[in-house]
Specification:
The protein has eight helices and 19 strands.
Length: 415
C-alpha cells in the first residue's frame, strides 16, 4: 500500500518489519537526537534521517507525542539539512523485538490521526520545503568533536555528572555534554554545523566550539592557532589538552598544547559529580549584577584557572568551595582572534547569559524569540533567503509580526 514519504526522489519503504534504512539509536545517530538535530549533505548525496512517529520501546513504553508535533519534527529535520525522511515505523510490527515500536499505523493497518497529520503537513508545506531541502545549510559556527576522545570518555567519564547509562550497553555522557554545547546556538537561532576534528575545514567558520578535547593532536592545535591568529574565534572546554594522541597524560602544564592559545594555566581541578558550583559572571556589568542575584552555576567539572594573558569572564563564587574567587571562564586575545576557555559546564542560565557575550564579540548575529521557538535560515535553489519558524509548544507564538500556531511551522522570506 501507499505510505507517507518525503524527499526530492520520494524514497520510501513498505515492509511489515524493519522500515528504516539504518538504526535510530543514539549509538549510531549520535548528533541527531532530541531538539539538537543536525544533518549534513554536501553535493548530491542522500542523507537519511529517521523519525520516530509513535510510542517507542522494547520492554517499556513512554511519552506519546501529539500528532501535530510528529509533523513538526519532519519540518525541523528538513530545515536542519535532511533531504529525505523515513518514518519509523510505517506499520507496527506484529511480533519480534519491535512489537512496542508503534509507528504511523498500528497492527490493524487502518489510518491513524498521526498519518492524517503527516499527509496534511506534506501537502501544505512540500512545495516550499522542496525549494531548499537539497541545498547546503549555511553556517558560520561549528561544534567540533573528536571520535577518539568520545571513546575515551565512554570508558573514563571523569565525573559522575558524565556517567549516564540509559541502558547497560550505553554510555551517553559525552553525547549529553555535546548537546549542552550545541544548545546555545539553538537558543539564539544561529545556524551551526557539527564536524569531527578530522573533517572540519576551519576556514569556513567564524566560531569553533571544541569541548572535551583530551587526546590532543599537535598538528590540529597548530591549525587552530593559525586560524585564530587570522581572526577566528575558538571556545575550548575543560580538560582540553590533558593527554597525547597515545592517551598518555601530558607532561606539560595544563591545558597542555593549548596553554599559549588560551592564555591560562590549570594547576588544579575538581570533579563536581552530580553537584554544582556557583559562578559570578564578569563578561558585562549587567551580567555581573544579574549573576549576583540569579544563581548561575557550573556543573560536572571545575578547572581552577590561573590567567596568564587571558581576561576573567567568570569566577567561582561559592563559600562551600576553597577555590571560591578563582577564575572559571576566561577569554584570551590571540592575534586577531579570541579564545574562550570554559573551566566548567555552564548550567542553562549561565549558558544563556554567557553566549550573549560570546556571539556578540564573535560578530555573529543571535536572536532569541522565546522558549520553544526555533528559527533556521536556509537558501533556496533560486538563491533567496528564507527563515523556517518552528513552534515547539502547545500554545500560539508571535514572532516578527507573524502568529505561529501550536506545534506549527511558518516559512517566511528574508532573515
Amino acid at each position: 500500500g501507499s505510505k507517507p514519504e518525503w524527499g526530492p526522489r520520494k524514497y520510501g519503504f513498505d515492509h511489515s518489519y524493519g522500515s528504516l534504512a539504518g538504526g535510530v539509536g543514539p549509538w549510531n545517530h549520535r548528533y541527531k537526537v532530541g531538539p539538537y538535530t543536525q544533518t549534513w549533505h554536501r553535493d548530491d548525496v542522500l542523507i537519511e534521517d529517521g523519525q520516530v512517529t509513535g510510542i517507542q520501546g522494547h520492554t517499556q513504553l513512554g511519552h506519546l507525542p501529539p500528532p501535530e508535533q510528529v509533523a513538526l519534527w519532519t519540518n525541523q529535520a528538513i530545515a536542519r539539512g535532511a533531504n529525505a525522511i523515513f518514518y519509523f515505523r510505517w506499520r507496527t510490527a506484529p511480533f519480534g523485538q519491535e512489537q512496542l515500536c508503534y509507528g504511523i499505523r498500528d497492527t490493524d493497518n487502518t489510518e491513524t490521526e498521526r498519518e492524517r497529520h503527516i499527509i496534511k503537513n506534506m501537502q501544505n508545506l512540500s512545495p516550499i520545503l522542496e525549494t531548499f531541502a537539497s541545498e547546503p545549510v549555511p553556517a558560520k559556527v561549528c561544534l567540533v568533536y573528536d571520535r577518539d576522545t568520545s571513546r575515551l570518555v565512554r570508558e573514563q567519564p571523569l565525573s559522575l555528572g558524565m556517567d549516564m547509562r540509559p541502558a547497560p550497553y550505553m554510555q551517553v555522557g559525552y553525547d549529553a555534554e555535546l548537546a549542552r554545547w550545541f544548545a546555545p546556538y539553538v537558543i539564539y537561532n544561529v545556524n551551526s554545523d557539527i564536524k569531527s576534528t578530522r573533517s572540519v575545514n576551519l576556514d569556513q567558520y567564524k566560531l569553533i566550539a571544541l569541548p572535551l578535547y583530551e587526546l590532543t593532536d599537535e598538528t590540529f592545535v597548530q591549525k587552530l592557532s593559525s586560524w585564530v591568529a587570522q581572526g577566528g574565534h575558538l571556545i575550548l572546554g575543560w580538560r582540553s589538552g590533558a593527554r597525547t594522541r597515545d592517551n598518555w597524560n601530558t607532561d606539560l602544564v595544563l591545558p597542555g598544547l593549548f596553554r599559549e592559545l588560551a592564555g591560562i594555566r590549570v594547576p588544579s581541578f575538581e570533579a563536581l559529580g552530580k553537584s554544582a558550583v556557583r559562578l559570578r559572571l564578569h563578561d558585562s556589568a549587567s551580567h555581573q549584577l544579574i549573576s549576583s542575584v540569579i544563581a548561575c552555576k557550573g556543573e560536572v567539572w571545575a578547572d581552577i584557572l590561573e590567567p596568564e594573558t587571558a581576561t576573567v569572564m567568570a569566577h567561582y563564587w561559592d563559600n562551600n568551595k576553597h577555590y571560591s574567587g578563582k577564575a572559571a571562564i576566561t577569554c584570551n586575545k590571540y592575534g586577531k582572534g579570541l579564545v574562550w576557555y570554559l573551566g566548567t559546564s555552564p548550567d542553562p542560565k549561565t549558558t544563556f547569559f554567557l553566549y550573549q557575550s560570546i556571539l556578540k564579540r564573535a560578530r555573529i548575529k543571535g536572536r532569541f524569540f522565546g522558549l520553544g521557538v526555533e528559527a533556521i535560515q536556509r537558501t533556496t535553489r533560486e538563491g533567496k533567503t528564507v527563515t523556517v519558524l518552528l513552534n515547539h509548544t502547545p500554545k500560539k507564538k508571535r514572532v516578527s509580526g507573524k502568529t505561529i500556531p501550536p506545534w506549527g511551522t511558518l516559512v517566511i522570506e528574508g532573515d
